[in-house]
Specification:
alpha/beta, homodimer, Molybdopterin biosynthesis moea protein, domain 2, Molybdopterin biosynthesis moeA protein, domain 3, six-stranded mixed beta sheet, 395 residues, 28 strands, elongated, Molybdenum Cofactor Biosythetic Enzyme, Chain A
Chain lengths: 395, 395
């Protein structure tokens, strides 16, 4: 009896819940892009840090502008530089640059374009109310106020406000570390011609990249070609030591030489069948206390299994949005095996229709590469017509 | 006379066109996630590489199944391992595993569930047509066919098909290298309390992160606090040597100590005003043959200037989608300065409405951090009412 996709997804979620529980680490701001805040961040300071000028112009007491034009002696200059300027005496003005400290005694800035400068004085042609063109200390945020919420994925503007508040490092959620172990005696690396029966390993690179694209990191990678349980056990020891969860591909179907099955079953792992195509054979277990999620070896099965069972959990842990779901209209009829949920490869057209790309075969890696959505055909559906709406998951 | 935003955007696009022209480099697949293909990639091989079994079962000649049940002697076994199996004699069967080479002489696979195995023979209960459960060589893609188009941003499924075809490295567009030079005598790094007049540098980290978020790389970073043209010149020499384009912040307004202006103008640079808020002062130029785009020093001005003038070009060069534009309904009235295009900070609500976050001031870094869209108010608009639709750009 096969499990439903939803039941297996629930099972995998439960299995991984401890591994995906947020842990924290501190990183420098320069390394914090796209990381997720571990907690809310409060401002240690007022922003702006001090009362400063919004314009290049003249700092004055607004009360000195009650009758304009008025000529005020210019008694100094304040640039945007460190240091506390002398207090302004009533009836005088100082030249001031944008961002510079507004002196005590001044409460307005007159933009340079509203003035006529003479050698040692300035004539102001417009009245200004107290506070005009002055940015008050704390007018953006007060010390103790929240700068950023918990669980926020950090973009450049978030790093900017942290830097502005003098925060040089930040506590973020640790990335989930994933180990990838591919199995199969037929697997080889690119770089030489394949002899008869040899297959280039696509699952290793696909899983590594998919893990990273979900905001997790790859803690360990191995390919096991030995068709030998003890050899696989050695790889798994290293994988478990270097990761929060282990993903394997291959070795779980009903044939012989199914090393992952042979390793996991005696340890209490579940090896069975999920009512889906591709990706029917699935397995889960624990190895050295680390959860293991095992996919079948066909590259399309592995990739779709990852998208369906693991990617949503990793994205959630990394604060990334879930894959976009859209209902699109089929451009052709389709038939589907009863009792199995199908994930067909599709290409979306103008965000309204979807064309089926390649056949349903789990070996069609080029077909998957040419698709941009998975078409999710429910297990009970056996036939759909051109124009029927189907649920799609954006890749 | 101010330039319009569109005119300045066109000017910046022209200035950067040579710097953003795609260059190519070769990277290993493991480093190719999110890179953009420099050209179309053709398959060097047929995929599948060889005719193989879709199921665990028995390879047979379909013609031997004309009358079922039929009992066939099992004369061997083929696993998914390197090597060419012996040809199948008519009237016999071999056990075969998923993915294993289908022997010459066999043209169908009978799934194990449709058979009854005896010691040395198998009874097949269903007829099978030639080709059933057999994956033909080249049935996914033929040698010479296109695997991936040019200009494609590589996701895990694209890397999978490259690996499957034995391709270990790929030619991608080089990332644009950007130098970031911030200026301002008042700037300090986080990590110690700011004295009066000192300001933590937010622009450096914001620009670095924004450049990376646009798929470019940061080739050089410097902060120049000397208010001195010769000192800035030294930074710019290093910046130009290590980047395809240089972005500066600060030093271009009409006040004194405007070092970027003082450096660029004698070299034929343009230093002027764009009819926008924030971000009015803008400058461009060339330094040692490398284009320079200069933003004002207020952190919000710098960040919004980057989003408006540079980010779209970098995203395009990196094969990233453009920022999403949406028309949203205002949750409150707003007034806008005539003659200036305003980019107000907003928070989108349920993808339908937009709330204005913080004031228009270019120092409100916390306000920008709390926003998720920029509200684009045209230069000629002076007033909008609650419920009016406004164009927004997603951050």
């Amino acid at each position: 009896m096969s499990r439903s996709v939803d039941d297996h997804a629930t099972h995998v979620r439960g299995l991984l819940s401890a591994a995906l529980r947020p842990r924290r680490e501190i990183v420098a701001l320069v390394d914090a892009l796209d990381r997720v805040t571990a907690g809310a961040v409060l401002s240690p300071v007022d922003l702006p840090l001090f009362r400063n000028s919004q314009m290049d112009g003249f700092a004055v007491a607004a009360s000195d502008l009650s009758a304009v034009p008025v000529r005020l002696p210019v008694v100094g200059e304040v640039a945007a530089r460190p240091g506390r300027p002398a207090a302004l005496r009533a009836g005088t003005a100082v030249r001031i640059m944008t961002g510079a400290v507004v002196p005590e005694g001044a409460d307005a800035v007159v933009p340079v374009e509203d003035t006529i400068s003479e050698r040692d004085s300035v004539t102001v042609n417009r009245t200004r109310a107290a506070g005009e063109y002055v940015r008050d200390r704390g007018s953006d945020v007060h010390a103790g106020e929240q700068l950023l919420p918990a669980g926020l994925r950090l973009a450049s503007r978030h790093l900017a406000v942290l830097a502005a508040a003098g925060i040089g490092e930040i506590e973020v959620r640790s990335r989930v570390r994933v180990a990838v172990v591919t199995t199969g005696a037929e697997l080889i690396s690119p770089g030489r011609p394949a002899a008869m029966g040899e297959v280039y390993d696509a699952n290793g690179i696909a899983l590594e990249a998919a893990v990273r694209a979900c905001g997790a990191e790859v803690g360990f990678v191995a390919r096991n070609q030995d068709d030998d349980t003890e050899s696989l056990r050695a790889s798994m020891v290293a994988a478990a030591r270097n990761a929060d969860l282990v993903i394997t591909s291959g070795g779980i179907s009903m044939g012989d030489y199914e090393v992952v099955r042979e390793l996991l079953q005696p340890l209490g792992g579940w090896v069975g069948s999920v009512a889906m195509q591709p990706g029917g054979p699935q397995a889960t277990g624990e190895f050295d206390g680390v959860p293991v999620v095992s996919f079948p070896g066909n590259p399309v099965s592995t990739q779709i299994s990852f998208e369906v069972f693991v990617a949503p959990l990793l994205r959630e842990a990394a604060g990334l949005p879930a894959a976009m779901l859209r209902r699109l209209a089929l451009t052709s009829d389709l038939r589907s095996v009863p009792g199995k949920r199908q994930f067909l490869r599709g290409r979306s057209l103008a965000g309204e229709r979807v064309e089926i790309v390649s056949g349903p075969g789990s070996h069609l890696v080029a077909g998957l590469a040419a698709s941009d959505v998975l078409i999710d055909v429910p297990a009970e559906t056996t036939e759909l017509k051109e124009g029927d709406l189907v649920e799609t998951m954006t890749l």
